[in-house]
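Exam prep: given the inputs below (a chain plus adenosine monophosphate), describe the expected output before reading on.
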Amino acid sequence: MREPMLSVEEARERVLSVFQPLPAERVDILAAVGRVLASDVYAADSLPPHANSAMDGYAVRAEETARAAPGSPPRFRIVGDLPAGAAPRQEVTPGTAIRIMTGAPLPPGADAVVKVEDTQQEHGYVHVFVPVEPGNYVRPAGEDVPAGTLALERGTALRPQEIGMLAALGHSRVPVSRKPRVAILATGDELISVDEPLTPGKIRNSNSYSNAAQVIQYGGEPVLLGIARDTTAALTARLRAGLQEDVDLVLTSGGVSVGDFDLVKDVLASEGDIDFWRVRMKPGKPLAFGHLRTTPSQGSRARPVPVLGLPGNPVSVMVSFEIFVRPVLLKLQGARDWERPPLEATLMDAIPPKDDRRHFLRVRLIWQAGEYRAYLTGAQGSGVLSSMVKANALAIIPEDWDHAPAGARVRVIRLD
Ligand code: AMP
Ligand code: MG
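Solution:
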């Protein structure tokens, strides 16, 4: 029986449907960079906590400056000095002013600040040359975030600005979703590890590392399970060992085509359950998805562990990761959205006649002449890693295009 051919969206929906957001943990504020906030954060205090001056100048009663002009500046007795960080001790009473620095709290009685450039100081008095309105150069309490309001929503990926907000609101520890743990297993009799010398017929295992790097890039924690030889026994043993690692997901690469040594499907079928699909995409057509059974003795969580069997070719495995595993990692971390922001570019190279799959082409995306332009980075074979190295984006050629002329407008996925 031929495996069903699924659209990218169908396959992704089926994969995503088995994952739920992971529980939260509290981490140090700087360890939270790039992670996803696990609870809503409400402001306990207003930000800023007190009305304060936006300028160096003089705190005054605005109405007393109403008739101020360069030729007839009203005069105020300076009754105090408020540097940033000081708490006001005097009041601004009629006919007086208090010298105030940026960030210092507005003293009682004052309702505006005259900036120092609009004044002249003389013998304990200040002359004010321009009128100010109530509220001028005053930052009200809670102008940024009023006390009690929602400052940051759960599911927000924490960038430097969110980290700053957390600090401003007094959070030195932050609730974030636990990092997804992802086991990574390479399969193939031809594979040797990175630091072994090359011998005839062998190639180095690169997939485990490109996938592990992708796991790290998208906020997970990779657990490398090494290389399984192309025997049922070896594959079974490695996968069982992986289950001891308390992982949220197992990735394999290779061994999911229809060759004699493509054993991932068979082993998954006997160790759990398996769906095998062809996905209407290139690269990355074969995709196995299933679960490994666990027993109570295996790890702390006796529940089936999802397994994604990715293709073996070094580019296919990375593209399949981008399309299927990245959204899983984001969903596990409680992110609200895993769609890439839509981006369109002009394809600068013609694409020869193609089949009815969605093609993902390695391109260099450049801003040129007021638009994004996408240039192919070289040979597009599934095993050509160097064109992936040169690429900063994937250009998407839809299923129903039988070719693409140079100049076509296409959607692109940025990789950087
Ligand atoms: P397979 O689907 O197992 O036949 O693998 C497809 C192609 O990818 C073959 O040329 C393999 O040698 C290659 N390949 C499989 N696994 C890896 C790996 N971990 N690192 C580099 N290349 C691999
Ligand atoms: Mg193989």
